[in-house]
Amino acid sequence: MREDFSYLKSKDVYADMACQSLRPKPVIDALTSYYTEFNSCGERVKYPWGVKTEELVEDVRRKVLKYLKLKSKDYFVSFTLNTTYGLNLILNQLNPKYFSKIITSDIEHNSTFLSTMAFAEKNDLERQVIARDDNGSLPLEMDFEKALVVVNCVSNFDGRRLENLNELVKRVHKEHGIVIVDAAQALAHNVDVLYKTQADAICFSAHKMYAPSLGVMVVRKDLLSKLDTTFIGGGMVDDVNKNDFKASFDNPDKFYTKFEPGLQAWGEIIALGAAIDWLEKVPKKAKADLSSYSKKLFDFMTKESKIHLVNTKPSSVISFYIEGLDSHLLGAALADEGIMARTGYFCVHYYLDHVKKYPPLVRISLGLHNTQSDVDKIIKALRKVI
């Protein structure tokens, strides 16, 4: 896949995919095409540029649902800023009367951990933080009665997957609760964990799946009955009087406007469509290569006594520290070798720092742009440091 990332120099090893992915040429071309050929507003104008924008944006909404194997009769797609913004946009408008508690897990990114904390404090609700199993599953032997469950489906520090997502959703729904999924780390390489899910909302970031900076919300239509609209503005109304308005989102065909106040990032949305097209055409060999590179790194680190791995199994996201060496210094040393990796706690402070009490870590996260020589270079650099 390297030819689609031709702007990368041979000395560059980008290994910070979990933060944001690189963008392949077709995605860059789609964004450039919007800005240079038909830069316009969707849903507001009748001239040809705007009509094209509107048609392409609607097509992307369909592509997102198809990519997740979900049906438009059950779900709609809204665009926003990022995963954090999407989670907060939903939580800040959910009516608390429908819930008896809010549940999250110990391995959550701060976007989930803090937003659930704020929801519980604001609405005086009990908040439970549940320990996830080593394989990423959430224990189901607990009370989910009227629970608001907000969890990730793929961890951003070790790639752990929520393998029992479908069972979780069924159990929570049976007890009159709802499930909101942080899917930021899933859409690029683990989208199958979400196939045909019945979760009530899925929030993810396009910029972690080879697309421009953008947030996406996939929401069950029946969740709208539990929402009180408090974040509102242009693009969400069909008419306005002095003291009231006619909401666009009262129309089932425009439910998505519930979460789309103001002007949207039309070019970025269109480029997301190009990223989905690109991902769906990725050869099986390229996916197998990525798995092979991940395993090679994992196996190397497992055999080095001074390397302490957080992962229990191979993943394209690997976190670790080296005994007796500050991880931030290691990150700088890797950077000197042209290797771009993340250091710290990756916005998972509660679990990594306070539960596991790890020192700051190094995270290497690979993508479809990486090659065998990249992996060899990482291993060579780590051996040199050790």
Short key terms for the protein model shown above:
386 residues, alpha/beta, Aspartate Aminotransferase, domain 1, Aspartate Aminotransferase, domain 2, 2 domains, seven-stranded mixed β-sheet, four-stranded antiparallel β-sheet, 10 helices
Describe the structure.
The chain is an alpha/beta fold. The protein folds into two domains: 2-23 and 284-385, Aspartate Aminotransferase, domain 1; 38-279, Aspartate Aminotransferase, domain 2, CATH 3.40.640. The protein is 34% helix and 17% strand. The protein has ten helices and 15 strands. The strands form four sheets. A seven-stranded mixed β-sheet has the order 2-8-7-6-5-3-4, with helices on both faces. Strands 11-12-15-14 form a four-stranded antiparallel β-sheet, covered by helices on one side. A two-stranded parallel sheet has the order 1-13. A hairpin with a 7-residue loop joins strand 11 and strand 12. Helix 1 (25-37) packs antiparallel against helix 6 (266-280). The chain is globular, with a radius of gyration of 22 Å. The relative contact order is 0.16.
